[in-house]
Amino acid sequence: MQCVGDISEEVWQDCVTLFLQTRVCCDAAIITNSPPWLLASYPEGNLFQLTQEEIQILLARDGREKLFLQGITLAGTKCLLIRDHLYTEGNNTMDLRTKGQSRGSQAVTVVQIESVYLVVMGQKGTEGGPLNLKAFEMAGYIREAIHQHMAHI
Fold first, then answer.
1. Which of 90, 88, 85 is nearest to 68 (CA)?
2. pTM of the prediction?
3. Which residues make beta-bridge pairs with 27?
4. What is the DSSP string of 81-128?
5. Cα dist. 50→32, 38, 39, 128 in Å?
6. CA–centroid distance for 143 within its chain
């Protein structure tokens, strides 16, 4: 998508709010691989603390195999990479799990939507499979909303 910058922060924030209403996740953010990096996030969650460096590592196309060995940090939380199909055509998802937290681990899914990425953290007890499916489904709605918005510009 050439014109992601033409979409207002309000539209991105509405997408995050839409996903949070599913009650499957407790936190969500929309990121991109260029400034401003973080387009929208849930203000009461942790993903609003995603750093430029964390986003660049998460979205880098080169050296992805080292993510399986080293894991990745998202908003200061260490995560294990479970499955990486972020750049696999037709799938475009990545599954992670937080680790080392006293409250237990949580599933995290990243879905590519055009040139932006939806990052969601599941509610405690939500498994990665159902979170991934819901994120993939919501990505379709967000993709459609983006296309509709772009058609009106």
1. 85
2. 0.90
3. 121
4. EEEEETTSTTT-EEEEEE-S-TT---EEEEEEETTEEEEEEEPTT--H
5. 11, 7, 11, 21
6. 14
- The dihedrals phi and psi of 123, each to the nearest 5 degrees, come to -60, 155
Tens-digit pLDDT profile for residues 48-76 = 999 999 999 999 999 999 999 999 999 99
Q: Amino acid letter at 116?
A: V
Q: Report the C-alpha gap between 59 and 111 in whole angstroms.
A: 11
**Which residue blocks in 33-97 are alpha helix, DSSP H?**
52-59, 65-70
Distances (CA, A) of 41 to 15, 27, 45: 9, 8, 8
Average pLDDT over the chain, rounded to whole?
Answer: 88
CA dist., res. 83 & res. 143, Å (int): 23
